[in-house]
Task: structure prediction
Amino acid sequence: MRGGGAMVTAERATVRLVCAECGAGYPLDQPRYRCDCGGLLDVRQPLDALRGQISRELFDGRLGSRDRRDQSGVWRFRELLGDYTPEEIVTKPEGRGNLYEDERLTAWAGVGRLWLKHEGENPTGSFKDRGMTVGMTQARRLGARTVACASSGNTSAALAAYAATAGLTALAFVPEGKVALAKIAQTVAYGARVIQVRGDFDAAMRLVQEVARAPEYGVYLLNSINPFRLEGQKTILFDALQGLGWCVPDAIALPGGNLGNTAAFGKALAELRDLGLIDRLPRLVVVQAAGAAPFARAFAGGFAAGSFAAVRAETLATAIRIGDPVSYPRARRAIALTGGIVTTVGDEAIMRAKAAIDAAGIGCEPASAATLAGVRALVAAGALPADAAVLGILTGHLLKDGEAVVVYHGATPPPPGANPPLTIDPTLDAVKALLDAR
Result:
């Protein structure tokens, strides 16, 4: 990688890394994930300078463009990501998932209107592609040769695919036996070296950070502790709100695991407001699995000192099975900014919501369904009004965790919404009997 002694280019001089805790600033031409004080870093965009350049019309005008950057739901908003050249950008392109509105799911959730932005329709099947395109682009700018992450599955798949695109070596540290097979298959297929760690995701995360801190390995870390990952993930809201004609819903609901999206969404909303692209802030609604809910516990404690503590995470929603989320401080800031809510739902509620989403022909992995389950629970409890307009985020594709589908629909007795396969003899009479019975 390029050393820390080089000067920041003139074009990048107004974009800086800034500590969210103490305000210290750092240049962009060296790999850095934390401040010297230990605080997490933000990429600070020069909003004052951009106000005269940024408009809804600028972004809307790119929707019909053949430019590969405009076809990406990330790089369409490139003025808010930095000044990368077209040659530096590593894109597939990504960020073109659909925005769904289905009356059955709106009624199931109990709200006035419900839109679901499906990030599982990204190239590798999850929202991680948005963060990875910016993170990998920054890795290329720094001259990195090896990139790495800890992962519960989706990050490793995105890392492997984008590293292959960029021609870089990828290392994926995953908790042994705790990642859905489809996600491991993607990571292996794209050529990353998979390193299984005896322990949970948090153990893998601690280890990969140690590796990235050791200069002799020359490894660039691409977990969401990397602030450039969050720059890509904030475009989920840019893209979704553009799809809504820049109309702001009452609430935006999303699953909470490592809390990178929560942090990124708070940053996105602040930037859109400060640039005048939206006129108010929606409430962020973060939904955690009950067995992996350190953020929800801290929220219930008013985010007071000592209210946050890591937990041993257990949930079938593997993408959010994280007990010690690294983006906690930035996520807490996002909840404070928007007057947000953090809640929990059990695995049974997650799978019921997933069955409803799947039956609507949309489909998602279990962690995504926490979004819908959480909205339904909050409306039932009176914490969200029944006439609310809600944007929900689906984070991963149905096929990311096919095992969960098979187990749910094959359970005895059948759970709500189950659609088990039926076995018959190879005769027309057997088909007739089956159809008559149904």
